[in-house]
Amino acid sequence: MPDLTPSGQSILRSARGSSHFLRETLGRYYATLCGDLIILLTVTMVAFITVKGLAAFTGPHPLSPLKFLFSSHWQPDADPGEGGPQFGTLAFILGSVSVSGLAVLLAAPLAVAASILISVIAPRAGENFFRPVLELFTGIPSVVYGWVGLSLLVPFIRNQFGGLGFSLLAGGLVLALMILPTITTLATDALQNLPDSLLEGSYALGATRWQTIHRILLPAARPRILIGVTLGMTRAFGEALAVQMVIGNSVRLPDSLLNPMSTITSVITMDMGNTVKGSAWNNALWSMSLLLLAITFGFIVIIKRLGPQDTKNGNHF
Amino acid sequence: MNPSSSPIATITDPIVEVRDLNLYYGTSQALRGISLDIPRKKVTALIGPSGCGKSTFIRCLNRMNDLIDHVRLEGEIKLDGQNIHDGSVDVIALRRRVGMVFQKWNPFPKSIYENVIYGLRVAGVKERTLLDETVEKSLRRAALWDEVKDRLHQSAMGMSGGQMQRLCIARAIAVAPEIILMDEPCSALDPRSTSRIEELIRELQGEYTIIIVTHNMQQAARVSDFTAYFYLGSLIEYGLTKRIFTTPRRKETEDYITGRFG
Description:
The structure holds two protein chains of two kinds.
Chain A: H1 4-15, H2 18-55, H3 65-70, E1 74-75, E2 86-87, H4 90-121, H5 123-139, H6 142-161, H7 168-192, H8 196-204, H9 209-238, H10 241-247, H11 264-271, H12 280-314
Antiparallel strand pairs in A: 1-2
Helix pairs in contact in A: 2-12, 4-5, 4-7, 4-9, 5-7, 6-7, 6-10, 7-9, 7-10, 8-9, 9-12, 11-12
Chain B: H1 5-10, E1 14-25, E2 28-39, E3 43-47, H2 54-61, E4 71-79, E5 82-83, H3 91-97, E6 98-101, H4 112-116, H5 118-122, H6 128-141, H7 145-148, H8 161-174, E7 179-183, H9 191-204, E8 209-213, H10 217-223, E9 226-231, E10 234-240, H11 241-246, H12 251-257
Parallel strand pairs in B: 3-8, 3-9, 6-7, 7-8
Antiparallel strand pairs in B: 1-2, 1-4, 4-5, 9-10
């Protein structure tokens, strides 16, 4: 390649030329700017919610944080003569925990089973049919889930088990349906990312397909499947609209699958329009938002904890 | 002379008899009319350039190709006189008789102990003493016992590459197979680990039938009793390793082993 050398050099020289340099620099600054903007937005939002959320605990009539968290006495519009407004959110916290817990309990086993089907048992049908369907499901707006729940599930529960139909069970089922695609997608990725050599190694030792799945593949994919489950939990915890439509929204501790109750998110969406800015009630709603944010951070910490352990395992393959 | 006709005659009491084996991936043919007999309790090396079908061939012997879509097989493979594709043959049982060690070590993300007894576990063995004994015996056999005996219950993922590959050999030995297939077991190992594995292969011969695929001609010469040279999906020459490396009968074989090609 004798005559490539001079022209090759000139190409290199022009690459370092001013227009390329400018583009390089501009590109870098643009990316940095966008990145910084995202960080700024997040920090601003967290700061805003924190300030608003802590307002209820300060001021002339401060709310006791303990009462806020551990009392289930919620009467935001009670007159001072009746003992004043009460802002105990325990019923909603437990409501959120139980409805999203129920959703995960219902969805996770199904999702893992579906991911096994897609990734191991029927990979071709999985890629051509199940995956697109799952992606479709993730795209359905939550109001549609809520509406379907309201018009099918609530009457069904009412007819089958009695009661109002609006219930923890209805909320849990709707949420389970909503988070099923999330968990399934992540669990499928987890299984598909395992090296084929694990599968082959297991088969070569005389293992059946099922033995290979439950003794080798599932344990190896477990950290990443758990990330999927946690993400599903996070989504369930933060979902407001669909839950609010089917859960009944009555202030009570979750004592039965068939009783109506409320969640943190459903109370915020229900009440935010009825309250005056700066009022104690409004401040209490902000505090609940802060609580939601804190719980979501908690979930993210769990996911991060699961993450590194997974890459540690992954490096060995 | 038909290149594959002579080795069949020279081997008495073969453990594996392959006749007219053709294998197709979709429309492309990967193995062309392979016929050869594998001697019992000897080491047989399969050599040849990349893509010559040697790995595909050994994966036929424990039916690992069953896992791949669009693979079509013609011809006959007999293990101890029984066609391994017979409807009556249980592929699970076949794979217990024909173990396999892969090119890239693939220990399971479990403890060393659990790796070794995996084959027994999936076979339903539960007796603790038998499992313990098997672990020690297999690890000793794979020349790994002294290095790991104090950390049997630690993860196998913390071992060196050479140790992991010996663990995979121990794992294969643990189910007491008759045949051990080795698909380039040393190609990802450093020279020292390679020579340990080669030593191990020499120690195991006489007890197991070993079929090893290798790119390394010296390795084939060092460890094997018989050598088969594959090229473009065909078996070119097969015979005693000593004979193949000293007086190859075919020009192609000679070119390959002298390094003029491949």
